[in-house]
Amino acid sequence: MRENLIKKYIDTFNHNDEELYSQCISNADAETWMMQNVPIFTCNQPLFEEAYYFRWWVFRKHLKATPEGTIITEFLSPVRWSGPYNSINCAVGHHLSEARWLKCGRELIHEYVDFWFKGSGNQYAYSSWIIDAIKNYAILWSDAEYGVQLLPHLVTFYQEIETHHLTRYGLFWSNDDRDAMECSISGSGLRPTLNSYMYANALGIAYFAEQAGDSSLAKDYRNKASLLKQNIIKYLWDSEEEFFKVIPLEDKDAQIATFDFKQIPKQHNVKELIGYLPWLFGIAEDTHARAWRYLSDPMCFHGEYGLTTAARDHLCYNLPSEKNHECLWNGPSWPFATTQTIDAMIASR
Questions:
Q1: pLDDT 10s digits, 153-177
Q2: pTM (predicted TM-score)
Q3: Are the CB atoms for 111 and 71 separated by under 8 Å?
Protein backbone atom coordinates (compact mmCIF):
# COMPACT_ATOMS: atom_id res chain seq x y z
CA MET A 1 0.00 0.00 0.00
CA ARG A 2 2.75 2.43 0.98
CA GLU A 3 4.73 1.68 -2.17
CA ASN A 4 1.75 2.15 -4.47
CA LEU A 5 0.65 5.32 -2.71
CA ILE A 6 3.99 7.10 -2.97
CA LYS A 7 4.75 5.80 -6.46
CA LYS A 8 1.43 7.10 -7.78
CA TYR A 9 2.25 10.66 -6.76
CA ILE A 10 5.92 10.59 -7.71
CA ASP A 11 5.20 9.28 -11.20
CA THR A 12 2.79 12.16 -11.75
CA PHE A 13 5.17 14.79 -10.31
CA ASN A 14 8.11 13.50 -12.36
CA HIS A 15 6.04 13.38 -15.53
CA ASN A 16 4.98 17.01 -15.16
CA ASP A 17 8.42 18.30 -14.19
CA GLU A 18 11.16 19.79 -16.33
CA GLU A 19 14.19 18.88 -14.24
CA LEU A 20 16.48 21.84 -14.89
CA TYR A 21 18.57 21.41 -11.74
CA SER A 22 19.43 18.11 -10.09
CA GLN A 23 21.31 18.02 -6.78
CA CYS A 24 21.68 15.13 -4.31
CA ILE A 25 18.58 13.25 -5.35
CA SER A 26 17.34 13.30 -8.93
CA ASN A 27 13.77 12.77 -10.01
CA ALA A 28 14.73 9.21 -10.95
CA ASP A 29 15.84 8.56 -7.37
CA ALA A 30 13.00 10.42 -5.68
CA GLU A 31 10.85 7.34 -5.14
CA THR A 32 13.63 5.40 -3.38
CA TRP A 33 14.55 8.33 -1.16
CA MET A 34 10.96 9.07 -0.18
CA MET A 35 10.24 5.41 0.52
CA GLN A 36 13.20 5.32 2.88
CA ASN A 37 12.71 8.64 4.65
CA VAL A 38 9.26 10.20 4.42
CA PRO A 39 6.57 9.45 7.05
CA ILE A 40 3.49 7.86 5.52
CA PHE A 41 0.37 10.00 5.35
CA THR A 42 -3.11 9.11 4.13
CA CYS A 43 -6.16 11.33 4.08
CA ASN A 44 -9.73 11.16 2.82
CA GLN A 45 -9.12 14.53 1.15
CA PRO A 46 -7.02 13.71 -1.94
CA LEU A 47 -5.88 17.31 -2.36
CA PHE A 48 -4.27 17.34 1.12
CA GLU A 49 -2.61 14.00 0.51
CA GLU A 50 -1.23 15.14 -2.84
CA ALA A 51 0.07 18.40 -1.33
CA TYR A 52 1.83 16.45 1.43
CA TYR A 53 3.75 14.21 -0.94
CA PHE A 54 4.41 17.05 -3.37
CA ARG A 55 6.08 19.01 -0.58
CA TRP A 56 8.45 16.14 0.21
CA TRP A 57 9.08 15.57 -3.49
CA VAL A 58 10.11 19.23 -3.77
CA PHE A 59 12.02 19.22 -0.48
CA ARG A 60 14.48 16.53 -1.62
CA LYS A 61 15.29 18.66 -4.70
CA HIS A 62 16.92 21.14 -2.33
CA LEU A 63 19.28 18.70 -0.62
CA LYS A 64 22.76 19.57 -1.83
CA ALA A 65 26.00 17.72 -1.17
CA THR A 66 28.93 20.02 -0.37
CA PRO A 67 32.49 19.47 0.91
CA GLU A 68 31.07 20.56 4.30
CA GLY A 69 28.19 18.09 4.34
CA THR A 70 24.64 18.14 3.06
CA ILE A 71 22.82 21.46 3.17
CA ILE A 72 19.30 22.54 2.24
CA THR A 73 19.06 25.27 -0.38
CA GLU A 74 16.27 27.79 -0.77
CA PHE A 75 16.77 28.20 -4.52
CA LEU A 76 17.70 25.58 -7.10
CA SER A 77 19.17 28.06 -9.56
CA PRO A 78 22.18 30.10 -8.41
CA VAL A 79 21.24 33.52 -7.01
CA ARG A 80 23.58 36.45 -6.61
CA TRP A 81 22.66 37.13 -2.96
CA SER A 82 23.50 33.62 -1.78
CA GLY A 83 26.47 32.44 0.27
CA PRO A 84 28.73 29.40 -0.23
CA TYR A 85 27.13 26.60 -2.28
CA ASN A 86 24.08 28.80 -2.99
CA SER A 87 23.19 28.74 0.72
CA ILE A 88 20.85 31.28 2.33
CA ASN A 89 19.98 31.25 6.02
CA CYS A 90 16.67 33.13 6.02
CA ALA A 91 14.53 29.98 5.66
CA VAL A 92 16.66 27.76 7.89
CA GLY A 93 13.89 27.65 10.52
CA HIS A 94 11.50 26.25 7.93
CA HIS A 95 14.13 23.79 6.68
CA LEU A 96 14.88 22.37 10.12
CA SER A 97 11.21 22.21 11.03
CA GLU A 98 10.60 19.89 8.07
CA ALA A 99 13.86 17.93 8.10
CA ARG A 100 13.37 16.76 11.70
CA TRP A 101 10.51 14.47 10.58
CA LEU A 102 12.65 12.49 8.13
CA LYS A 103 14.17 9.16 9.05
CA CYS A 104 17.50 10.64 7.97
CA GLY A 105 16.70 13.81 9.95
CA ARG A 106 19.34 13.40 12.64
CA GLU A 107 22.28 13.14 10.27
CA LEU A 108 20.90 15.78 7.90
CA ILE A 109 20.26 18.33 10.64
CA HIS A 110 23.67 17.78 12.26
CA GLU A 111 25.42 18.41 8.96
CA TYR A 112 23.24 21.38 8.03
CA VAL A 113 23.47 23.11 11.41
CA ASP A 114 27.22 22.47 11.61
CA PHE A 115 27.53 24.22 8.24
CA TRP A 116 26.00 27.37 9.76
CA PHE A 117 27.83 27.39 13.09
CA LYS A 118 31.09 25.60 12.37
CA GLY A 119 31.43 25.87 8.60
CA SER A 120 31.39 28.62 5.99
CA GLY A 121 27.67 29.41 6.20
CA ASN A 122 26.75 33.00 7.07
CA GLN A 123 24.12 32.69 9.82
CA TYR A 124 23.93 36.49 10.17
CA ALA A 125 22.93 37.32 6.59
CA TYR A 126 19.21 37.25 7.42
CA SER A 127 17.24 37.04 10.65
CA SER A 128 16.17 33.56 11.72
CA TRP A 129 14.80 31.44 14.55
CA ILE A 130 17.53 28.82 14.08
CA ILE A 131 18.14 28.09 17.79
CA ASP A 132 14.45 27.53 18.42
CA ALA A 133 14.36 25.13 15.45
CA ILE A 134 17.36 23.21 16.79
CA LYS A 135 15.62 22.93 20.16
CA ASN A 136 12.47 21.55 18.55
CA TYR A 137 14.56 18.98 16.69
CA ALA A 138 16.42 18.02 19.87
CA ILE A 139 13.18 17.46 21.78
CA LEU A 140 11.69 15.31 19.00
CA TRP A 141 14.82 13.19 18.63
CA SER A 142 15.83 13.20 22.34
CA ASP A 143 19.13 14.70 21.17
CA ALA A 144 19.68 17.56 23.62
CA GLU A 145 23.35 16.61 23.76
CA TYR A 146 23.82 18.01 20.26
CA GLY A 147 22.51 21.41 21.36
CA VAL A 148 24.64 21.28 24.50
CA GLN A 149 27.74 20.78 22.36
CA LEU A 150 26.72 23.76 20.25
CA LEU A 151 25.98 25.99 23.24
CA PRO A 152 29.07 28.25 22.95
CA HIS A 153 28.24 28.85 19.27
CA LEU A 154 24.59 29.58 20.10
CA VAL A 155 25.52 32.11 22.78
CA THR A 156 27.98 33.83 20.43
CA PHE A 157 25.27 34.01 17.77
CA TYR A 158 22.81 35.64 20.18
CA GLN A 159 25.37 38.08 21.57
CA GLU A 160 26.42 39.16 18.09
CA ILE A 161 22.85 40.05 17.19
CA GLU A 162 22.41 41.85 20.52
CA THR A 163 25.49 43.94 19.77
CA HIS A 164 24.30 45.06 16.36
CA HIS A 165 20.52 45.14 16.69
CA LEU A 166 19.38 45.66 20.30
CA THR A 167 18.06 49.20 20.86
CA ARG A 168 17.71 51.42 23.92
CA TYR A 169 14.05 50.40 24.02
CA GLY A 170 14.78 46.78 24.87
CA LEU A 171 13.68 45.60 21.42
CA PHE A 172 15.69 44.53 18.39
CA TRP A 173 15.86 46.72 15.30
CA SER A 174 15.80 45.04 11.91
CA ASN A 175 15.82 45.98 8.27
CA ASP A 176 12.87 44.50 6.38
CA ASP A 177 15.24 43.32 3.65
CA ARG A 178 17.32 41.40 6.22
CA ASP A 179 14.10 39.85 7.51
CA ALA A 180 13.77 38.49 3.94
CA MET A 181 10.72 40.72 3.51
CA GLU A 182 11.93 43.26 0.99
CA CYS A 183 10.10 46.49 0.31
CA SER A 184 7.43 45.93 2.91
CA ILE A 185 4.97 48.70 3.70
CA SER A 186 6.08 48.97 7.32
CA GLY A 187 9.75 49.16 6.42
CA SER A 188 12.62 48.88 8.88
CA GLY A 189 12.19 49.35 12.60
CA LEU A 190 11.13 47.46 15.71
CA ARG A 191 9.47 44.54 13.97
CA PRO A 192 7.60 41.46 15.23
CA THR A 193 10.03 39.39 13.14
CA LEU A 194 13.48 39.57 14.72
CA ASN A 195 12.01 40.28 18.15
CA SER A 196 9.90 37.12 18.08
CA TYR A 197 12.80 35.10 16.70
CA MET A 198 15.16 36.30 19.41
CA TYR A 199 12.62 35.57 22.14
CA ALA A 200 12.44 31.98 20.90
CA ASN A 201 16.21 31.79 20.42
CA ALA A 202 16.77 32.95 24.01
CA LEU A 203 14.49 30.22 25.32
CA GLY A 204 16.37 27.73 23.13
CA ILE A 205 19.67 28.70 24.74
CA ALA A 206 18.06 28.47 28.18
CA TYR A 207 16.81 24.97 27.38
CA PHE A 208 20.24 23.71 26.31
CA ALA A 209 21.90 25.47 29.26
CA GLU A 210 19.56 23.61 31.61
CA GLN A 211 20.42 20.35 29.86
CA ALA A 212 24.09 21.20 30.38
CA GLY A 213 23.53 21.90 34.08
CA ASP A 214 24.40 25.59 33.72
CA SER A 215 21.59 27.15 35.78
CA SER A 216 23.18 30.61 35.72
CA LEU A 217 23.24 30.77 31.92
CA ALA A 218 19.72 29.35 31.74
CA LYS A 219 18.41 31.98 34.15
CA ASP A 220 20.14 34.76 32.23
CA TYR A 221 18.50 33.79 28.94
CA ARG A 222 15.09 33.14 30.44
CA ASN A 223 15.28 36.67 31.84
CA LYS A 224 16.22 38.00 28.40
CA ALA A 225 13.21 36.22 26.91
CA SER A 226 10.86 37.46 29.63
CA LEU A 227 11.91 41.09 29.19
CA LEU A 228 11.67 40.82 25.41
CA LYS A 229 8.15 39.40 25.65
CA GLN A 230 7.09 42.27 27.90
CA ASN A 231 8.46 44.84 25.47
CA ILE A 232 6.93 43.18 22.40
CA ILE A 233 3.52 43.33 24.03
CA LYS A 234 4.08 46.82 25.45
CA TYR A 235 5.35 48.51 22.30
CA LEU A 236 4.28 46.46 19.27
CA TRP A 237 0.65 45.71 20.16
CA ASP A 238 -1.78 48.23 18.68
CA SER A 239 -4.61 48.04 21.20
CA GLU A 240 -6.98 50.02 18.97
CA GLU A 241 -6.67 47.79 15.89
CA GLU A 242 -5.81 44.78 18.04
CA PHE A 243 -2.77 43.67 16.12
CA PHE A 244 1.01 43.44 16.47
CA LYS A 245 2.69 46.00 14.21
CA VAL A 246 6.01 47.60 13.35
CA ILE A 247 7.31 50.76 15.01
CA PRO A 248 9.21 52.41 12.12
CA LEU A 249 12.80 53.38 12.94
CA GLU A 250 15.49 54.46 10.50
CA ASP A 251 18.34 52.65 12.23
CA LYS A 252 19.21 51.00 15.54
CA ASP A 253 20.40 54.18 17.22
CA ALA A 254 17.65 56.53 16.04
CA GLN A 255 15.17 57.94 18.52
CA ILE A 256 11.50 57.02 18.30
CA ALA A 257 9.24 60.06 18.15
CA THR A 258 6.13 58.20 19.30
CA PHE A 259 4.90 54.74 20.23
CA ASP A 260 1.33 55.83 19.52
CA PHE A 261 0.29 54.03 16.35
CA LYS A 262 -2.23 56.80 15.59
CA GLN A 263 0.71 59.20 15.25
CA ILE A 264 2.74 56.95 12.94
CA PRO A 265 2.59 58.08 9.27
CA LYS A 266 -0.23 56.29 7.48
CA GLN A 267 2.05 55.01 4.76
CA HIS A 268 3.88 52.84 7.34
CA ASN A 269 1.12 52.11 9.86
CA VAL A 270 -0.10 48.77 8.52
CA LYS A 271 -1.26 45.30 9.46
CA GLU A 272 1.03 42.65 7.96
CA LEU A 273 1.17 38.87 8.34
CA ILE A 274 4.28 39.23 10.47
CA GLY A 275 1.90 40.43 13.18
CA TYR A 276 1.04 36.77 13.81
CA LEU A 277 4.61 35.77 14.65
CA PRO A 278 4.14 36.35 18.41
CA TRP A 279 1.72 33.38 18.39
CA LEU A 280 4.21 31.15 16.62
CA PHE A 281 6.64 31.44 19.53
CA GLY A 282 4.24 31.66 22.47
CA ILE A 283 4.49 35.41 23.07
CA ALA A 284 0.88 36.46 22.43
CA GLU A 285 -1.69 35.95 25.17
CA ASP A 286 -5.43 35.20 25.28
CA THR A 287 -6.21 38.92 25.35
CA HIS A 288 -4.72 39.27 21.85
CA ALA A 289 -6.89 36.61 20.20
CA ARG A 290 -9.15 39.00 18.27
CA ALA A 291 -6.28 39.59 15.84
CA TRP A 292 -7.18 36.31 14.14
CA ARG A 293 -10.38 37.79 12.71
CA TYR A 294 -8.35 39.62 10.08
CA LEU A 295 -7.43 36.38 8.29
CA SER A 296 -11.00 35.94 7.07
CA ASP A 297 -11.54 39.62 6.29
CA PRO A 298 -11.53 40.30 2.50
CA MET A 299 -10.45 43.87 3.27
CA CYS A 300 -7.42 42.59 5.14
CA PHE A 301 -5.56 39.30 4.52
CA HIS A 302 -8.20 37.15 2.84
CA GLY A 303 -7.20 37.02 -0.83
CA GLU A 304 -8.64 35.02 -3.67
CA TYR A 305 -5.54 32.82 -3.96
CA GLY A 306 -4.26 32.86 -0.41
CA LEU A 307 -3.23 35.20 2.38
CA THR A 308 -1.83 38.55 1.37
CA THR A 309 1.28 39.77 3.17
CA ALA A 310 -0.28 43.15 3.92
CA ALA A 311 -3.79 44.46 4.57
CA ARG A 312 -5.70 44.90 1.31
CA ASP A 313 -7.33 48.15 2.47
CA HIS A 314 -4.01 49.93 3.05
CA LEU A 315 -3.16 52.87 0.80
CA CYS A 316 0.18 51.30 -0.19
CA TYR A 317 -1.16 47.82 -0.86
CA ASN A 318 0.41 46.30 -3.98
CA LEU A 319 1.93 49.57 -5.17
CA PRO A 320 5.02 49.32 -7.40
CA SER A 321 8.26 49.73 -5.46
CA GLU A 322 10.38 52.81 -6.00
CA LYS A 323 13.41 50.51 -5.58
CA ASN A 324 12.30 48.45 -8.60
CA HIS A 325 12.89 45.31 -6.52
CA GLU A 326 11.95 41.88 -7.84
CA CYS A 327 10.49 40.86 -4.46
CA LEU A 328 7.63 42.76 -2.84
CA TRP A 329 6.09 42.08 0.57
CA ASN A 330 3.43 44.79 0.27
CA GLY A 331 0.58 42.48 -0.68
CA PRO A 332 1.52 39.51 -2.88
CA SER A 333 1.12 36.10 -1.26
CA TRP A 334 4.41 34.51 -0.18
CA PRO A 335 4.70 30.84 0.94
CA PHE A 336 7.30 31.88 3.55
CA ALA A 337 4.82 34.18 5.32
CA THR A 338 1.82 31.94 4.77
CA THR A 339 3.66 29.02 6.38
CA GLN A 340 4.63 31.12 9.38
CA THR A 341 1.04 32.25 9.79
CA ILE A 342 -0.40 28.73 9.57
CA ASP A 343 2.21 27.50 12.05
CA ALA A 344 1.29 30.40 14.34
CA MET A 345 -2.37 29.44 14.16
CA ILE A 346 -1.53 25.82 15.05
CA ALA A 347 0.64 26.98 17.96
CA SER A 348 -2.14 29.24 19.27
CA ARG A 349 -4.64 26.40 19.70
A1: 999 999 999 999 999 999 999 999 9
A2: 0.97
A3: yes
